[in-house]
Amino acid sequence: MNTRLILMTVVAALLLAACGGDAAETTATAPPDTAVAAATTEAAPPAPAPTVISASAGQTDLGPTLVGENGLTLYGFTNDTQAASTCGGTCAEAWPPVIVSPDWDVAPDLDAGIFATTTRDDGSLQLVAGRWPLYYFAGDAAAGDINGQGSGDVWFAVDLDGGLYTDQAAAADDAAAEEAAPEAADGAEAEAAAPATIVSTGDTDLGPVLVDADGLTLYGFTNDVDGQPTCEDDCADAWPPVIMDSAELPEGLDAEVFSVVERPDGSFQLSAGVWPLYTFAGDGAPGDVNGQGSGDVWFAATPEGGLIRDGADAAAAEEAPAESDSDDGY
Questions:
Q1: Which residue in 57, 179, 192, 261 is a FRET match for 159, CA 20 to 30 A apart?
Q2: How do residues 5-63 score in pLDDT, each as one tens digit?
Q3: Which of 122, 153, 118, 157 is nearest to 137 (CA)?
Q4: Closest CA to 283 of 223, 210, 224, 231
Q5: Can you tell me the distance from the alpha carbon of 148 to that of 234, in angstroms, rounded to the nearest whole number?
């Protein structure tokens, strides 16, 4: 009987050991699914950032034209030599540069080889097509607008090959001149067209203001102390002066209001009252007054030769020139 007890005890011990071994093996073996899933999640690459297209092909009345954001026309500035931008300050407000990131790209239907970048004075990158740094025009509001075309005879839309639409602008001007010329009567030669009025009065949201031959608003610069022009170089690109052929006041202008003053470069500029007169590159059509109050130093000129300050009328217009704390308030 003792022998049977011993045998039964041994068998029970062996069975328990066998069961314990299986449990140990089961516990030591980790379920693989969780570990594999975690490793797979950690190894997944981040989603690539969407590519920003900085230029694409558009269509304007000039033909196929480079366009940027929202299909707005892109322009080149003929003063930008050697693909370096010279338009800054207020000029860049009227003509915003096309700023890109280091990983810029253009639409696939364009020849990427004609594009490059130039570094601006502030360190940002500006897109270049051909040899022209690219800009928008503040006067364009919708795709297809080309209100900046030919502005100042230095701003032109850019074609798909990186060239400027300068020839088309000249052709359009010639066509317009032919259309405006009086027709010959009875085979006689057409009479010579009367010279365009250099300055006249136009209506704007500010009221009556002086305008140039194209109907564009004329402005005075309060930094022009004592009636001496001080807007040159980049400033004059954004605010083109009204240049005269000589120091003689043209016929038809009231000498009590208008005069001609010599600029630092020796050219002659028309003045109204004590204010040398300028247009603004950001105005694209008659009636525009986009330059009004710019830098708190540029104001539209009144027919009496004063300035409209803060939207005021004659009282403010008759103010004398004041010293400005800014050296180059453009």
A1: 179
A2: 555 665 555 555 555 544 444 444 545 555 555 455 555 666 555 567 899 999 999 99
A3: 157
A4: 210
A5: 17
